[in-house]
């Protein structure tokens, strides 16, 4: 299990993605943003000091 911080390019929300595969070869990811309510492009953030809104863990 790997953890990545993704930043939505449309709303700017940074959130944590937990996946079982490596994203290190990716610079962007097309993924569902629960804030936008649709699939958007995300930048993969490697700075661990970035503010994280853990919108996944609040279910
Ligand atoms: Zn968004």
Q: Could you explain how this protein is built, in words?
A:
The protein has 59 residues and is an all-beta fold. The protein has a single domain, classed as Rubrerythrin, domain 2 (Single Sheet). Helix content is 0%, strand content 46%. It has strands spanning 2-8, 14-19, 28-33, 38-45. It has a four-stranded antiparallel beta sheet, with no helix packed on it. A hairpin with a 5-residue loop joins strand 1 and strand 2 (14-19). It starts with a strand and ends in a 14-residue tail after the last strand. Residues 8, 10-11, 13, 33, 35-36, 40 line the site of zinc ion.
Largest beta sheet: strand ordering: 2-1-4-3
Low-confidence stretches: none
**CATH architecture title:** Single Sheet
Distance between the first and last residues' Cα: 19 Å
Q: What structural class is derived from the secondary structure elements? A: mainly beta
Strand content: over 45%
Describe the sheet with the most strands. Answer: 4 strands, antiparallel
DSSP helical segment count: 0
Number-wise, the strands total 4
* Ligand inventory: zinc ion
Fill in the CATH topology: Rubrerythrin, domain 2
């Amino acid at each position: 299990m790997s953890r990545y911080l993704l930043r939505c390019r449309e709303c700017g929300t940074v959130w944590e993605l937990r996946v079982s595969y490596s994203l290190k070869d990716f610079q962007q990811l097309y993924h569902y943003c629960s804030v936008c309510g649709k699939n958007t492009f995300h930048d993969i953030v490697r700075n661990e000091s970035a503010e994280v809104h853990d919108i996944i863990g609040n279910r």
